[in-house]
Amino acid sequence: MADYTRPNKKSGNKCGHNPASPRYFSPPEKHAPRPKLLPVAIIRVTVYFSDPSILPTLNAANGSERQQRSERRESCIAILSCILHYMDLITLRVGIPQADGSMQGLTMPYLAELSGLGERRAERAIHDLKAAGIITVHPICEKVSDTVYKGVAAIRTVSMKLFVILGLDAWLNHERRRAVERKADKQAKRDRKAAAHVRMAMGAQRDKPAPKTTPSGNGRANQMAHVATFLSNARDILKPDTS
């Protein structure tokens, strides 16, 4: 009979978790730097692994009086860090900004991949973050036909309460005001550019010489027909009433 060696519990589990060396979120390479507030928030969130008391509602999300397991804490930190990295400062929504100003949400498989987790672990972490009131999730559907709808990436929003707990609410409000001002400046610049293009187009049209017109035989005939009709109507009007 082959020898059986009991696995060392301290080495982790089948998902690769090692309590002595938790894995945290790493932003994708070549990403533009995020506002400094967000990396600081991510750093403070990672403290939850060693001190679950900093996020008590998350620690109690499993409905048990026992402390949340380290594997679950690692998942929640990874997902929440990824969410913060992709968070829009103005709306607190999570996703990738689009050219038309909308926000494209992150699908669960993509969110799991970015966080370095399996999809099932990512789903459980999202469930815990929702139960803790740290994020809200709004499912989105696109209408394909009168009776068919297609699910698309949900829009997730981070609660302001998280930044209050992390002691970053004043900083966040300051950064949000700055972000609103930057967005307004960009929109004003686009509006000025569009107005300049319109003025140039109108000026070019105004300066364009009018096309020369030459009378044609048909045009002359039409004019004479109108004159004849006018004279005929005038005679009818001026004809004395003999009734």
What does the model show?
By secondary structure, the chain is mostly helical. The chain has helices at 37-46, 56-59, 70-85, 108-115, 119-131, 160-165, 169-207, 217-238, and strands spanning 93-94, 96-97, 103-104, 135-143, 149-158. The chain has a three-stranded antiparallel sheet. A two-stranded antiparallel sheet has the order 2-3. Strand 2 (96-97) and strand 3 form a beta hairpin. Helix 1 packs antiparallel against helix 3 (70-85), helix 3 (70-85) packs across helix 4 (108-115) and helix 3 packs across helix 5 (119-131). The radius of gyration is 35 Å and the shape is elongated. Residues 1-31, 199-223 are annotated as: Disordered.
Characteristic terms for this protein:
two-stranded antiparallel ribbon; elongated; 10% strand; mainly alpha; disordered N terminus; Arc Repressor Mutant, subunit A; 3-stranded antiparallel beta sheet; 243 residues
Concise structural overview:
With 243 residues, this protein is mainly α. It has helices at 37-46, 56-59, 70-85, 108-115, 119-131, 160-165, 169-207, 217-238; strands spanning 93-94, 96-97, 103-104, 135-143, 149-158.
